[in-house]
């Protein structure tokens, strides 16, 4: 597996692949890779001739009081995992390489950001869209792979691709979970043992909401109340940041009653880790 | 000359050229073409295998009280002029084609915008950077051609290219002038005869400032005062929007005294047309 630090080297590598008629699959990550990332790499390897992954903890998507500095890192293990999943080239830029002019010019996301993580993390999706615009231009992928754990990110990246006319197809991949249901996350390592024991209730609350919908409940507010009540009685350590139910990918309530594709999404704050999870359902 | 309305058709055309090893020169315009644009096209034709021009009056770079609706148009003459200057493909999209999601995601310029036209036209360069990001991704140029009449635009587009890692070289082309010195502009047609007779003083004022620098003046404020005084005594119809002298392309005063490359820039408002001009000098 090749490893690159300079944008121009990755660009040259990708350019040669494209010139030779090969398709490029790309999975951007922030490193500290887990089975969720592995599933993206494997899908990319199955679909594309060449797989490029990036590992870059993007400072502009973190708020001032967030965990940028403490974001977990393990580049040696990451490289082994990426290679074992069929990644051909790993891009490991530093901040100066991606932001040669600092934040002189950035991307701004003006819709779908007033809910869920966008509401709790102002500016987060501006940072995501900024770094991805740069990475897409450098890597020139035909397909990009994102996990549905960050469902709001998937919706916004799809809009970014369409708005900026990137010739890219987005492949949204299912959430990978621990055996007890907890969604895989680089941040799970920062849970205390007692928090880790509690965290599987996050997914169970979502399943509880899903069950109610399957039984015929179509009222957004009642579904949210059901899931919230479940959390209030099961989460003793985690603080609920939000629980919401919205149409997906619009991230609005498009109808008075649930109709079409629905997301129930939650964020829970533990002492050193903010966890997110969601479930999407066709109504 | 080919003409395209759909981004995907231009992309496919450009993609084929690139695949065949050809270089693409691109000159984005707002139409109503004049000799200034012609000079860009001819330079592109001399430097690149394939020349693409676009004609799109970009709504997002106009302020609410600006001349978007009244911006002059003459698509038939534009096509003839473009073809005669060696343009191979003209891209004439409508607003929906460029902004399929409206302004859901935009580009924001956070530096070099607090002076000159950026100060007078808040949001103008956000609109410019947004549309150019889209056009660069659609057209995939190797070289892009911009006129130095919009010197602040040239500085910002250079920063955009660098910030977003576009594999593009920017070629800044000299200002083309009428025989009496007035900078060529699509907006000149909107001057009344008496305004048109006065407008050449704009360039003469800049030359006056240039002469002072050549004679050894190195104080920014005194140069600005010299040029401003010239305008106050020569412009009876035009209202001065700004006169400024700054380092270029930083668009700051990098030193207490003039040093390096300097721009003296001016904007003058007539009844139906706001004219800009500038001169750059090595100190």
From TrEMBL, chains A, B:
Catalytically driven reaction(s): (R)-pantoate + beta-alanine + ATP = (R)-pantothenate + AMP + diphosphate + H(+)
Pfam families, A to Z: Pantoate_ligase
Active site (catalytic residues): 37 (proton donor)
Binding site for ATP: 30-37, 147-150, 176, 184-187
Location in or out of the cell: Cytoplasm
Gene Ontology MF terms: ligase activity
Residues annotated as binding beta-alanine: 61
Lineage: superkingdom: Bacteria
EC top class, as a word: ligase
Pathway(s) per entry: Cofactor biosynthesis; (R)-pantothenate biosynthesis; (R)-pantothenate from (R)-pantoate and beta-alanine: step 1/1
Alphabetized UniProt keyword annotations: ATP-binding, Cytoplasm, Ligase, Nucleotide-binding, Pantothenate biosynthesis
Coiled-coil residue windows: none
Residues bound to (R)-pantoate: 61, 153
EC nos: 6.3.2.1
Misc remark: The reaction proceeds by a bi uni uni bi ping pong mechanism.
UniProt function note: Catalyzes the condensation of pantoate with beta-alanine in an ATP-dependent reaction via a pantoyl-adenylate intermediate.
Protein family (similarity comment): Belongs to the pantothenate synthetase family.
HAMAP family on file: PanC
NCBIfam families: panC
Complex and partners: Homodimer.
Protein name (record): Pantothenate synthetase
The organism's taxonomic lineage, starting at the top: Bacteria, Bacillati, Bacillota, Bacilli, Bacillales
């Amino acid at each position: 597996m090749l490893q690159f630090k300079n944008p121009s080297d990755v660009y040259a590598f990708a350019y040669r692949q494209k010139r030779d008629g090969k398709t490029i699959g790309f999975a951007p990550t922030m490193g500290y890779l887990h089975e969720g990332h592995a599933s993206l790499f494997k899908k990319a390897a199955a679909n594309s001739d060449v797989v490029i992954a990036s590992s870059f903890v993007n400072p502009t998507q973190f708020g001032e009081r967030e965990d940028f500095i403490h974001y977990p890192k393990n580049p040696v293990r990451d490289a082994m995992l990426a290679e074992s999943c069929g990644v051909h080239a790993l891009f490991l830029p530093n901040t100066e390489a991606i932001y040669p002019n600092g934040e002189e010019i950035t991307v701004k996301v003006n819709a779908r950001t007033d809910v869920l993580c966008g509401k709790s993390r102002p500016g987060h999706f501006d940072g995501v869209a900024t770094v991805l615009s740069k990475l897409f231009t450098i890597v020139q992928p035909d397909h990009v792979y994102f996990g549905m754990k960050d469902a709001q990110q998937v919706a916004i990246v799809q809009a970014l691709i369409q708005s900026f006319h990137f010739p890219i197809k987005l492949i949204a991949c299912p959430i990978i979970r621990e055996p007890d249901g907890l969604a895989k996350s680089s941040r799970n390592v920062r849970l205390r043992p007692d928090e880790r024991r509690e965290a599987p209730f996050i997914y169970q609350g979502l399943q509880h909401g899903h069950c109610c919908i399957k039984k015929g409940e179509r009222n957004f507010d009642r579904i949210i109340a059901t899931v919230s009540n479940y959390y209030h009685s099961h989460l003793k350590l985690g603080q609920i940041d939000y629980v919401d139910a919205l149409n997906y990918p619009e991230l609005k309530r498009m109808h008075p009653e649930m109709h079409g594709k629905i997301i129930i999404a939650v964020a829970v704050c533990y002492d050193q880790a903010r966890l997110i999870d969601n479930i999407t359902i066709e109504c």
